[in-house]
Amino acid sequence: MLARSSLRFFRGLARYQSSHRHVASTLLRSIDPISGLRNRYFSASCRPLQAAVESREASDTLQAPSQRLGPKSEETENTPTVPITLTEFETLAKYGAATIDHARGCLEHLKAQLLPLALEERREAAAKTDAGRKILLWLWTEYGSDPAAFLHTGKARIGPDLCWFLLAQGLEEYLWKWIEREIPSAADLNNFSDLENERQRLLWTGPLLAGLLQAHYEWATDASLDVALKAFKKAREAFSVYGERGDKFVEIPFWTMSKITQDDFTCDASLYEILIDFHNKSKSLHRDLHLWRFRFGALALNRPSNPDPEAFLQWFRQFTPKVMRRYHPKARNANAAYMMKAAYILRHQMRADEATELERFVEKEARQVWSNRRKTLEDLDARRGLVNIRRNDVTIPW
Q1: Are residues 15 and 92 in the same domain?
Q2: Nearby residues of 262 by Cβ (< 8 Å), 6 or more positions away
Q3: Burial code of 236-274, b = ≥16 C-beta within 10 A, e = fewer?
Q4: Boundary residue ending a domain (137, 165, 193)
Q5: What confidence tier does 339 reach under pLDDT thresholds 50, 70, 90?
Q6: Considering the chain, what percentage of its residues have pLDDT values greater than 70?
Q7: What span, in angstroms and rounded, lies between the C-alpha atoms of 152 and 204?
Q8: What is the pLDDT of residue 202?
Q9: In this structure, what DSSP letter does residue 182 have?
Q10: Is position 294 within any domain?
């Protein structure tokens, strides 16, 4: 059943017609999708290298695809990818020497070249590369339905750039087919002896969904989160039959929402409440309640219709200078930036005493953020999402 549904997926993807049909047909002839399929729960068989492409690739010849993912996430996080062209990637793929890092380097290189273009021109150019379809097909050929490619974290994740190109090509439906095939896995999480390992292996849909949301936002013409949050709603409904267990499959890494909500975005208030509601209901799934309170408070600060500092204040009042000093400077400054935003909202709510409490903490524990408070004030004054709470009779002493 798995093989038949995967084959249908391949055939649908292969039938997609791009402006580069002759290149696509050459790629498809070089790959046998059936032999590339892997069973989700068993190790992939080794495939020997057909020709020596580079000396570095030779060491990969006796490794399964999952062994060629590269370093673990903590190592890969800070390892820059080597930019390669799509043609170079296709050559490596043809001889079985391509890796996830090659695919990531290719997508990053292409995207960097296109970003200077105007939005519509950028979308058209991204679609013409056919990179999203080709690399998604390669992933399915190499890994079958094995989600290991999406288990990297942070900068090492291939998902956001892959989704970016697929959306430009109008191929979002294939991402949903991939996600929807994981729905039965939500019912099977208790069937494995090594539950935690299998849980991590299966729960890749959150990072992929995060990439999809980020890509929708980057392609939005008006900095709107609406389409992105509709996609989140769709995924949540698809897995809702499994309750809390299903929620784990759509748990978006917080760094994605944090990155988006730091921008001056627009959003339908009811759609944003879906995100707030999901995080509120996920409390029982979090082992670190202090971290959960921070994330919930940070999301509430960005409510489009009514930015709310209450949840953030509850987190702050359990946060001590001793804890703050243990943080990496970058994380310390990020926390302080949220404190300044909360203080800004509180002052416009005529709650100066509580705002002062936050400001004094930042002044003492995050001097860099405090020294830039004037620029922070200018940025917050310009935010469209805070227009509903501003008062003309309030002067903020920054």
Answers
A1: yes
A2: none
A3: bebbeebeeebbbbbbbbbebbeebbeeebebeeebbbb
A4: 165
A5: very high
A6: 67
A7: 9
A8: 57
A9: T
A10: no
Residue 251: which pLDDT band, with cuts at 50, 70 and 90?
Answer: confident
At 264 the pLDDT is 77
Query: Environment class of residue 338 by beta-carbon count within 10 Å: exposed (0-12), middle (13-18) or buried (19+)?
Result: buried
pTM for this structure? 0.70
Do 373 and 346 fall within a single domain?
yes
Q: Is residue 175 part of a domain?
A: no
Rounded Cα gap, residues 323 and 328, in angstroms: 11
Q: Are residues 84 and 203 in the same domain?
A: no
Work out the number of other CB atoms within 10 angstroms of the CB of residue 19: 11
The answer to whether 166 touches 172, Cβ cutoff 8 Å, is yes
- Total domains in the chain come to 3
Nearest C-alpha neighbor of 243 from the set 182, 179, 178, 183: 183
Helix-strand-coil percent breakdown of the chain, rounded to 5?
70, 0, 30
Q: Which of 165, 199, 234 is the last residue of a domain?
A: 165
Of 200, 210, 214, nearest to 164 by C-alpha is 214
pLDDT band of residue 201 (cuts 50, 70, 90) is: low
Work out whether the CA dihedral 177, 180, 181, 182 comes out positive or negative: positive
| CA gap 313, 303 in Å, rounded | 15
Look at the chain and count its residues.
398
Contact call for residues 385 and 266 (beta carbons, < 8 A):
yes
- Strand, coil or helix: what is 350? coil
| 221: containing domain | 182-285
Arithmetic mean of pLDDT, 366-389: 92
Torsion of CA 110, 115, 119, 120, to 10 degrees: -30
Within a domain: residue 51?
no
Grade residue 105 by pLDDT with cuts at 50, 70 and 90: very high
Residue type at position 331: A
Same domain, 70 and 154: yes
Q: Are residues 267 and 221 in the same domain?
A: yes
